[in-house]
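Researcher: We're reviewing a set of sequences before deciding which ones to prioritize for further study. For each one, I'd like a predicted 3D structure that I can look through quickly. This is High-affinity iron transporter. If possible, include the structure in C-alpha cell form so it fits the rest of the review sheet.
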Amino acid sequence: MRRLLALLLTLLGVALAAPGDVDVSAELRTAHDLVAQSLREYEAGKTDEAFRTARSAYLDHFEYAEPPLRVLNPDLILEMEYRFADLRNGMKSGARIGELQKIAGDINESLRKAQSIVSGTGILAPTLAATGGFTILFREGLEAALLMAAILAYLASTRNDRLRGGVWYGALAALVATAVTWYAATYLLSIAPVSRELISAITSAIAVVILFYLSFWMLQQGDRKRSAEFMRARVSQAVQSGSLGAVALVTFTTIYREGFETVLFYQALAVASGPVMGYMYLGVALAVLALAVVFAVIFRLGRRVPTQRLFPILVAVTALFAVAFVGNGVRAFQEAGWLPVTNLYGKVPTLDPNVAALTGLHPTVETLAAQVLMILVYVVGYAVLRLREGERFKRKAHS
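Model: Here's the predicted structure for High-affinity iron transporter, in C-alpha cell form for your review sheet.
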C-alpha cells in the first residue's frame, strides 16, 4: 500500500513539475552540461553568470528528473541536492576553481548513477566492461609469460639452471610491486588536488599513447625481434655476473613494465566502467584463469602458444580501447572546462551512459572528431606498415 501511495505521489509530482512528459535522461544530460558550462563561466570571471547557470542546472532541469528517481533511490536525490547547493554556495563565496571542480566531479558522477538507474545497464555495457577487464590483463600477462619463457630458455641454453630461481623471484617481486602500484595510484588519485575529470583526462591521454605504440609494436615482427635481442643481451650480462640477484632484477624490470602498463589501463577502464565495474573484475578473474592455463602450457608442458594467431586479435582490441579512451579523454577535458563543448543531443543517437563511457562515443562534435581522427591514424599507419613490409619482401626477393 505504501509503495502504491509513493508511486501515485511520484506521478503527481511529475505532472506538476513540468508540462507534458518529462524526458528524465534529457534533463539529466542538460544538467550535466550546464554544470560544466558554469565552471567555464566561473573560471572566466563571470561569477554571476556561473551562479545562474549552476542554479538553472538544478532548478530548471534536475528537479524535473527528481520525482521518478526519488522513489528508486531517495538517498541519491538527497545527496545531489546538497552537492548542487555546495556548488552554488562555493560560487557565491568565491571558492577556488579547484574546489568547485571537485564538487562538479561528484555531481557528474551522481548524474551518471541517476542515468543508469533510469535506463538500466542492459547487456552491452557489462559485456564491454568484462571484455576490457579480460583483454588488458590477458594481453599484458601473455607478454610477461613469453618474456619469462625466453629468459628461462636462454638460461637452459647456457646451462645455468641454478639461476632459474632468480627468474621466479623477480617475477614474484614484480607482481607484488604491481599490486602496490595499483593501490598507491588509487589512493594518490583520490587525494590529488585536481578535479576528477582532469585526472581522468590525463590518465586516458597517457593510456592512448601507450596503446597506440603497443598496437603497432605487436604488428611489427622486426621490432619484437629487436626487443627480444635486447632482452637476451641484458640476461646475458646478468648470467655472466653469476648473480642470482642480477637475474632476478632483469626479470623484475621486464615484468614490472607490463604490470605498470596494466595498472594505467585499468585506472582508465575503471573510470569508464562506473556502475558496471563489477563486470570488469569478472573479466579480470577470467583472464587470471586463462593465464593460468597459458602458464601451465608454457612452463609445465613446455609447449608453444600460438601467439601469431592471438596477436592480431589483441591488436584489434587494443586499437578499439585506444579509440574509446580518446573519446573519454576529450570528454573529461570538456568536463574540466579545458575544451569547448558542441552538443549533438537530438542530432545523433544517444547511447546508454555506461555504453557511452566504455566506448567513448559521446554526442559532442569534439569527442567524435577525435575518435574519427584516431581511426584515420590507425588506418594510415596500418597501410604504411604494410607498404614497408611489401618493400622489404621485394628487396629480399631481389637479393
